[in-house]
Amino acid sequence: MQRFQDQVAIVTGAARGIGRGIAQRLATEGARVLVFDIDQQQGETAVREMTKDGLQVQLVVGDVSQEKDVDRA
User: Is the CB of residue 44 less than 8 Å from the CB of residue 54?
Assistant: First the structure.
């Protein structure tokens, strides 16, 4: 099912846990996903594993409480 084809999603806290699961599900259903997380190492691992599966994901390392990081995303 491609419910999110041609859509873009930003998922915060997406390096692990529920956020990662949400990011992966959205990407599986066709979305291009921005993985936004403060943990660069875990974020890189998550993105590497998802892109290995052919999903369209990209990492932005940042803190959602910092306006400059949110603007960059």
Answer: no
Residue with token string 């997406």: 14
CB atoms within 10 A of CB 15: 24
Q: What are 64-73's pLDDT values in tens digits?
A: 999 999 998 8
CA pseudo-torsion sign 51, 55, 60, 64:
negative
Whole-number Å distance between alpha carbons of 29 and 72: 25
The span from the CA of 35 to the CA of 43, in Å, is: 7
Predicted TM-score of the model (pTM): 0.90
Q: Within 7-72, where are the H helices?
A: 17-28, 40-52, 67-72
Q: What is the pLDDT of residues 17-40, one digit of tens each?
A: 999 999 999 999 999 999 999 999
Residue 16 token pair? 């692990």
